[in-house]
Each structure stands twice: as structure tokens, then as C-alpha cells.
Amino acid sequence: MKKYILGIDQGTTGTRAIIFDQDVNIISSAYSEFTQYFPQPGWVEHDAMEIYEITLKMMRQAISEAHLKPENIAGIGITNQRETTVFWDKNTGIPADRAIVWQDRRTLPICEALIEKDGPAIEDRTGVTIIPNDSATKIHWQLKNNPEIRRGVDDGRLIYGTIDSWLTWKLSGGRAHVTDPSNSAVTLLQNARTLEYDKGILSDLDIPRSILPEIRSTSEIYTATDPALFGGVEIPIAGLIGDQQGATLGQACFEKGMAKNTYGTGSFILMNTGDEYIPPSDGIFSPVLWSIGGKVDYGLEGLVDVSGAAIQWLRDGLNIIEESGEAEALARQVADTAGVYFVPAFVGLGAPYFDSYARGTIIGISRGTTKHHIARAALESMAFQVRDAFKVMERKAGIPLKKLRADGGGAKSDFMLQFQADILGIPVERPVITETTCLGAAYSAGLAVGYWDSIEEISKFWKIDRSFEPAISEEEREERCFNWNRAIERAGGWLKR
């Protein structure tokens, strides 16, 4: 019987399930969005049960559309939106409340108190910049502000997990409460050197160790699916990896100095630093990329909170486009932005600025400004933010960036990648498979079940679709970046009085 690998990419706005064959061809793919909740300014929530139900539906749909049976699936790999925090009842499998999403900003005061208390030491131990994205501060907030969660934890009923833990628990029928070092690396809960939970941060935030999932490697058979879900068949769940580390794995960035950017809801810039842990600073943090075959790889990461979400805002907020792809068509109708710069700081600014008080700014508007200029400025903002993060990463690692591998939804835009190459001054490469996040999840599972033999084998599957070469002068590049930095300064600190 021919076997396949099923990768699950549970993202911030939707869930995708893809079935790959041994030559990394996509056999089938299923995708669905799910509901976003914004109960207060700066708050973002998801319904964890809806996420599970849609994930299961997409898995079944992908298997059905490939004309396969569950027994054809050799293993399941899960990659997911990181830091999003879920509490659920371990007896009933029902969430205690909505999940607090990684983008949520409600824990800013907790972060500021931690920074004031012992910020540099905490960041050095955990490898993470103390920002509201972190799961640890979300856990603390829920324990302090939701009496039902506090009681459930004290009673021993409720447990916590990021989405990888939640989905594994639900798909296995409650047989496994696990995570991996790549997911745990960005929660602020894990010690970056020992890859165990950091006792200091648990004490600082009054988080019981008993509610946390077991940290296992990125690629191993953790459990199997509940036989009731797939007609009596148990499919191994064999890979867990954070979405951005999954994209780095899917992009075959296995050598020190290799780098990728994923253009999704946000942009996530990662550079492989090999077995060297470089403590975080300057808004850049230092996650574990993966733990595979007894070897741990580290990286440097820059997080841009709003990237593709800016294009969604053009669609849903301004209503100047009906589909996200129309933004590029608008942008191409003008030669430049006519001096307009768009800083999409809807929830603050990520790396390397990390200004939670910043807010979105469109500057340089004149009477001649049109929707075409605003659309172009929105697309260009994605590239500017990536460049800013990479410049800091190059300096920290002491490794000059020679090329960038791009993936995610935004990587389908030729306009976007050409401007990225222009503003970085290096080639930007788009692979044949741009859904590299899901591919990384598939690789992690496939290696665990013996579907693929080694990292060396899977590195050969990476194939280039197109390379974009820089096409502007250094003088023009510097001028544009200078004006971008002026716009950043004006967006900064807006909420402060």
C-alpha cells in the first residue's frame, strides 16, 4: 500500500491540510478560514474548539480529495500559530475560554513589570524578548483575571497548551499532552540552554508546572489519532513544530547563515545559527529551530506583527479591493508611492522596534494621493520591515546575508519579491512549493516514521521557482530607507501621553 504524509498548518486566520508523496509532490490540499474575535482594542481571540473542528474537517477533506484512505497516511505533522494560549478541561476536552492569540496586546503591563524586575536576565535565559506575544504572560493574565480558570487549575482539572498541544490532545482523544522545543521556545516558559521549563519565570508569574505539556523532540511518534476519528484507523502523530521554524525546515535552511522570510499575516524572518545560541537583544530573539535526531539547531528571529494583514485591511477596512491579489494590480498602475509611506502598526511595532504604543500611520499624503499609491505603500511596508529586522540579525550573528528564501502567501507576488530584493540589495528566491510551513511539518513527521531518511535527503527536494535580483541603485535604496525610518519615528509611541 502506497503511503503519504499529512501536514497540518494551523495558522492565525485559517487551517490548511496538505498531503505530500515521497517526492514532495502535493497530492491534495484543503483550506478553511475561521472566526477572529476582537472584544476590545488590542485584544485578539480564537475559539479553540472551532479550530479543532475545522482542522479535523480539513484533514478528512484532504484525504477524501486525494482519493485515499486513512491507512494510506504514514504520519501526521502539525505546525501552528505559536504563543496562542488555550486552557481546557482534561476530563471533558472542552476549552475553558477563548484562546488568547499571539497578536493580543492585553499583557503589556505584565511585560513591563517583568522587564523592570529582571528583564535582561529573563531574556538571556529564555531566548525571548519580553513582549505581549509571549504565552507565559497570557497564562498569568488568565490566572489572575478569570476566576473559573483559576479554580480549574487549582482543582487540577484545567491544563494549558499552545495550539500544537491542543490539537494533539484532541486528535489523540486526550492521550498526549505534549509540545516541542520550537513551540516552547517562543512562550517565555522554556530555558533556551537546557530546553526545560524555566523555574524562575514559573515562579515570577505564579504558573504551576503541572498544567504545562511535556517537552518532547520536534520529530518523534508522540501518539496516534483517536480511532473513532478515521474509521478505526490510528494514524501516528509524529511531528510538532512552530510555524516559522516549520517554514525554515521546509525551506531547507539547514546551514548556518541561511535565512528565510514567511509573508503571512505577519512576517517572520529567521536565520539559522547552527548549534550556537546567541542571546536576544535589539528586538531580535533567539528561538530553537528544531530538535531532530538528537541535534538542536538555534536561530535568530525577527517578528513583524502586521504584514499580509495590512492587505486584508485594504480589503476589509478600506474596501478598496475585493480580493487580496488586487493590491498588486493597483500598485502596478503607478510608478511609485508618490512619497506615501504606510506603517501598519495596527497592534504596535515588532522587531526590531518593539513599540507596543505605536499605531498605524499613513504619511506623505497629498491631494494627488490615490488608492493605487496606498496599495503600493502597503505592499512596500512589508519589505521595509523585513529589511530592518535583517540588518540587526546580520550584525548580531556576524554573518552577511547573501540571499533570502521567501515563502507564504505574500511570496506569490512578483511585485512584492522584486521590491524586497531591491530594498535588501540581495537576491530573493521563491521555491516551487511556497507552502513551506506545512512542508516543514510534513518533514518532521516523515523523518520520525522513516518516510524520509535524513535532513540531507530532504534538502535535495528544495527547488527554485524564480530568483529576483536587485534592480535599483544603492543611492535610491538608502533614500527610500531613510524616509521609511522617518515614518517609523512618527508612528512610534502614539498611545503614550
**Main β-sheet, spatial strand arrangement:** 15-16-14-13-19-20-21
Count of helix runs:
15
Largest sheet: 7 strands, mixed
Oligomer state equals: single chain
Unreliable stretches covering 5 or more consecutive residues: none
CATH topology of the domain at 4-244: Nucleotidyltransferase, domain 5
Helix content estimate: 25-40%
Name the average pLDDT.
93
Fraction of residues in β-strands: 15-25%
Output the radius of gyration.
Answer: 22 Å
Say how many strands there are.
Answer: 21
Protein name: Glycerol kinase
Pathway: Polyol metabolism; glycerol degradation via glycerol kinase pathway; sn-glycerol 3-phosphate from glycerol: step 1/1
Family: Belongs to the FGGY kinase family.
Subunit structure: Homotetramer and homodimer (in equilibrium).
Question: What key phrases describe this protein's structure?
Answer:
497 residues, alpha/beta, Nucleotidyltransferase, domain 5, six-stranded mixed beta sheet, 21% strand
Describe this structure in words.
This protein is α/β, with parallel strands linked by helices. The protein has a domain at 4-244: 2-Layer Sandwich (Nucleotidyltransferase, domain 5), CATH 3.30.420. It is built from 15 helices and 21 strands. It has helices at 48-65, 108-126, 135-145, 147-154, 163-171, 181-184, 199-204, 243-250, 308-316, 326-331, 371-397, 414-424, 436-448, 455-459, 474-491; strands at 4-10, 14-20, 26-33, 45-46, 73-80, 86-89, 99-100, 158-161, 178-179, 214-215, 219-224, 236-242, 259-263, 267-274, 288-292, 295-304, 341-343, 361-363, 404-407, 428-431, 464-468. The strands form six sheets. The chain has a seven-stranded mixed sheet. It is globular and about 65 Å long. The N and C termini lie far apart (66 Å). 55% of the residues are buried.
